[in-house]
Amino acid sequence: MNYDHTYRLFIETFEKMFDWEIYAEAKAFWLLLFIPVLALWYIIKQKYFQATVHFSSTTPFEKIPTSPLSYLRHLPFVLQMLALGFIIFALARPQASLSWEEEKTEGIDIVIALDISNSMMAMDFKPNRLEASKAIAKEFVGSRTNDRIGLVVYGSEAFTQCPLTIDHSRLQQLFDEIHFGMIEGGTAIGMGLATSVNRLKESSAASKIIILLTDGENTAGEIDPKTAAELAKTYGIKVYTIGVGTKGTALSPYQQDMYGKIYYKELPVVIDEETMGSIAKITGGKYFRATSNQKLKAIYAEIDRLEKTEIASLKYYKKNELFMPFAASGLLLLLLAAPLNWFLFRKLP
Q1: Which end of the chain is more exposed for a tag (fewer CB within 10 A), N or C?
Q2: Please, what is the Cα angle at 245 between 293 and 189, to 5 degrees?
Q3: What pLDDT does 131 receive?
Q4: Using CA of residue 199, residue 201, residue 202, residue 206, what is the dihedral sign?
C-alpha cells in the first residue's frame, strides 16, 4: 500500500470534508444529531446524578489548592464525542475522485523544405529572406504541439537538417544553426522536394504535408520539380509552396570578394510561380506569394488553420475509498479516552 499517496488523498479529502459530493453515504451524517443529545445528557448527568457529601462548613477546604486535573475532567467525554464524529464520517464513506484525460491524436507529419541559396540574402525581408523565413517557421513549429515536424534545406543539392520529430525545442535549435555557405549556390527545387518526400513516404500519419519555400527558379539538381511533385502525389503528400520575395526589385547579393565581403545592388526578383503553382496543384496543396515578413507570417497562419490536428479525448475516473483514516482516528481517540477514564479521572461511586 502506498501510504504517502493515501495520506495525501486523506489531507485533500479532509480539506473538502464539508463538500457533500465526496461522500458515497451522506445519509450517515444524520447520526451526528446524537452528539448534541449525548452532550446534553452528559451535562444533566454531571449536574443532577452525581453522589454528594454534605458538610456543615466548607471553610476547611478553601485553602486546598485546585488540582490541574480538575480542569481536564471532561477531556475523556470530549475525546469520545470526537471519536464518534470521526466514525460517522467513516460511515459516510468519503472518497477521493481522480480523473485524467487521454488524448488520442491523429497526427500530421510536416516537413519544411527551406531554400538556403545565396539569393536568400536579399534584404526585401528584415533582416534578410533567410533569417525572416527561419524566425517565422520557428513560430509555426512552436504552435504545432501535436505534430511531428522535420526540416530539409536545399541549395544546389539537398539534405535533411532534422528528421521528423516531436522534440520541437531541438528542431528550433537546428533552425538557428542554418547559415549561408552550408550548401553551394544554386536552387535545386526538385531535389529539395524529393528529399522531403523521402522523409515522409514511410509515414503512417493521417495527413502528410510539405511546406516548400523558395525565392527563385529551379537552376540545379537532377530531379525536375514536377517529377518530384508527382512522386509526392503517389505517397499521398500535400505540398504547400511559398514564393518569397517582393515584386519588382530587391537589394540582393551579386558579388563576393576574396576576403568574403558581399556586395549588394538592386536586382529583379524572379520566382517561377508557374512551377510552384503546378507543384501545389498536382499534390492538392496551395501556392502562396510572400512579399514581406508580415505576409509570410500570415501564410504560415493560414496553413496552420488549414491543417489542424484532430484530437479525440477519452476521460477516465477513479474513486479511492478514504474511510479508513477516519475510522482509525476514531478508534485511536476511543483508545486514548478509555485509560483516562479508568485511571487518571477515575471516580468513586
Answers
A1: C
A2: 115
A3: 96
A4: positive
